[in-house]
Amino acid sequence: MGMREITVSGHNLTIHELEDVCDSATGRVLTGSWLWDSSLLLSRWMAATRADDIRGKSVIELGAGTGLPGLTAAVLGAERVVLTDVKALLPGMERNVEANGLGERVEVRELVWGSAEAEEEFDIVLMSDVFMEVETMEDLGKTLKRVCRNNGSESQVWCSSEVRQWTYACLGELLASQGFRVVELPPSPLVPVSDSDDASWDMFSIFHLIPPLHDCHVADYLVFDFEGLGDT
After folding, report:
1. How many CB atoms lie within 10 A of CB 10?
2. 61-73: b or e for each residue (b if 16 or more CB lie within 10 Å)?
3. Do residues 148 and 208 touch, judged by C-beta distance below 8 A?
4. What CA–CA distance (Å, rounded) separates 85 from 67?
5. Is 154 helix (H, G, I), strand (E, B) or coil?
6. pLDDT digits over 165-192, tens only?
7. Nearest to 71 by CA among 93, 48, 89, 53
8. DSSP assignment letter at 33
9. Cα gap 78→106, rounded to integer Å
């Protein structure tokens, strides 16, 4: 895989991708060690539309993989960033934190969704390409509730995803099992999806997840009805 240099809003970030990182229990390759277009999209979207919201805030990235969105939040002025994922992916994230000289503000931490390890609350929660397996959504929802400040009423949750046939089934399960509302944000013509000529906004979406007790004004968003999507 090697190293990639990513430019986000004038900031240059170095991202190391690792090969042959596997789950110790199953032997399955952990694709989170690679840089995916959805994380690049989330990073550029934040830089273009949410930089003021991030400055001075505490940020956690769930399922961070290489950590690009979290590192982007740090260079945009977040006061503190915590990158989390399974244990096998932590060395790669630590390397990327060190490569970008962000060790004073960015911490790398193991976090398994659904566990009681997530006891700290954050202003902003970031995720990219986490809607992969319907059966993991209940645990993801439990972790989201733990890391959102004041039961979610004072936190923002942003997630980018390539839209696959199971994406909306995962979102539907997150709503059904944990009571989240899901808002799909409109595409921004100012934000390139990726460095690939084949990628377009038709293939990706950015979602705002609203915890059950968070009464948020969504008039400017595209709100989707997820009834029955868990069965698709």
Report:
1. 7
2. bbbbbbbbbbbbb
3. no
4. 9
5. coil
6. 889 999 988 888 888 888 888 777 667 6
7. 93
8. G
9. 9
